[in-house]
Specification:
single chain; 6-stranded parallel beta sheet; binds ligand ME8; alpha/beta; Isoleucyl-tRNA Synthetase, Domain 1; 509 residues
Amino acid sequence: MKPTYYITTPIYYVNDVPHIGHAYTTVACDVLARYKKAKGFDVFFLTGTDEHGQKVEKAAMANGESPLELADRVVQRFQGLWETLNVDNTDFIRTTQERHKQGVQELFRLIEGKGDIYLGHYEDWYCTPCEAFWTENQLIEGNCPDCGRPTEKLKEESYFFAMSKYQDRLLAHIEANPDFIQPKSRRNEVVSFIKEGLRDLSISRTSFSWGIPIPGNEKHITYVWFDALSNYITALGYPDSESHNLEKYWPCDVHVIGKDILRFHTVYWPTFLMAAGLPLPQKVFAHGWWTVEGQKMSKSLRNVVEPNMLVEKYGIDPIRYFLLREVPFGLDGDFSHAALVQRINSDLANDLGNLLSRSTAMLSKYFDGTLPEPTEADAVDAAFIEQFTSALPVIDSHLDNLAFNKALQVIWTLVSAGNKYIDDTAPWALAKDESQRDKLGSVLYNLLEGMRLVALLTAPFMPEAGAKILGILGEDPDNLSLEGHDNWGGLPAGRSIEKAKPLFPRIEE
Ligand code: ME8
């Protein structure tokens, strides 16, 4: 049986349309999902939408539509974008789906049955126009931090989850599993937060109605984070499923999230799971945030980067590449058009595109496009080949650590090695000397075989380019498997390979 790999994105709120930040998380997960598939894993890659809660209810009201109408409309924007970006998710969960609703209610019942959910009162400062509760610390001179109007102390009946009970167990788990929260700086942040003391968590609301009713007391709806976090198991069919996906894929290998929702995933979610007697996720990785041309992305600044526009202008693969190459995953980064154009022109058009054009053009010119048999490798050839074989495990370990930019750096050292190999071996000089014919043949074989491996390694990041290069090399563009295909020497001599057209056009701005 194949080993399994379960990876998730956050489920995105439908009160906002998708932007570059959402694309970032989802593409990152797609790259890992594709890579693990290529390595022979049975992959379950989940994304979806978070459709309940007051924010969605309000956005719908402002638009004069029902929350579900809003959700039905916006979910298409997300699904459409993932299709455009070549995101190959296994499932897409919407929290308004019946399967999810049932799972959430079951999880509530289970935890309640174990005695970790109780009915009490939630008391805080309430802003009636905003329909929002605020803690004393959040108020600005006693007024609502959002609208500035006066607030009043209000008591609302609420169900509570006994989160405080799990404080020590959670800390012990984090200590015993150093990889549970990544990167390390985030882990320290969570540990300090827990050490300040966990309070029981209000997990129901009565002040609005757009949510999953609490079983047995329908005056209450489920708090949106209890609802949303459960998606990671309801999508697998929790509490049980004919597909047995829960037994097969849970606990997940990694929840990939933005740093904004770290606490929900590393404090709330694990303690819910502990209460339910379910295993915890293996890893939660919080990536950084993108700013745009140095500024925070916001509707009011009108600087929200719309991924569809970028794709139209620059293409899918370059955007996918840029997002993961530019900034170390885990750190904040800045999106700028200049940086994007620079990456496309130098890494893609110059380095990768030129290597393919030069190699196939020389094969055409010197061997009529027929791949020669490689003869014995001399020191230069051996060193070139060795770079490829030694790079594979390094790339593998970088991807296991979600160090996408490092993995790409290593792949690009191979691309550079190819260009340097051409300069060092000077095929044009070898071609002038008939006695060097075998040597010339080996050089071209090695270049194109290197190209094949580069294509396979690049394919998770740039599926179109990867498949295109493989097609040019006469390989099956649908077979992106790295299992048994990542050994040196896969290209059969004698094959016809045509001169490639430029893979990435240079962007002139
Ligand atoms: O928080 N840079 O949904 P959401 C990088 N529904 N990533 C960004 C970003 C930026 N500027 N802006 C958003 C929610 N993101 C909840 C999640 S999960 C059980 C429920 C990404 O629509 C990042 O991954 O606000 C962040 O965590 C996510 O979008 C938040 O999406």
